[in-house]
Amino acid sequence: MTRPDAGEKRKDRGDQPKSRDCRLTPGCRGTISHAGMRIRRAIFEDLDLLVPLFDSYRQFYEQPPDPVLAREFLSARLQREESVVLLAFDADGRAMGFVQLYPTFCSVAAASFARSDGAVRLELSTAPTNHAARALYQREGWRRVDEFEVYALPLAPPGA
After folding, report:
1. CATH number of the domain that 126 lies in?
2. Region for residue 19 given its phi and psi (left: phi exceeds 0; alpha: psi -120 to 50; beta: otherwise)
3. Which residues of the chain have pLDDT under 50?
């Protein structure tokens, strides 16, 4: 998809300018602003920025620190285009957070991208102990769904 200049009109949505729109397609380098952050799709060259953020995320979920494993995991996802990683920067340009999107899992920062892409719903999950994330999601309009139970099937042998 070729990105027109910010002043050009979008052909697929009538009169709306394309200045802040970025579809979640490979190679898209557009950015959006949300809650004082600048958010863009991460590329392979962003691994050095992503690894410490991802490793901290893993540690929050009681995994041992392992930046090598974090790099390998992120590298594989980015190279194989198995997920989309959105990278958030503060006003000074420092990487401050990320969202990793899979075909059925999205988070708060993805809402603008999903709306512009025509999505009708986003779903996410987090640990019950992740109070900061839960408060953020609620402030952003996400609603807890109690009608469903979530199940996971571990594929690795116990203790692996």
Report:
1. 3.40.630.30
2. alpha
3. 1-26, 105-106
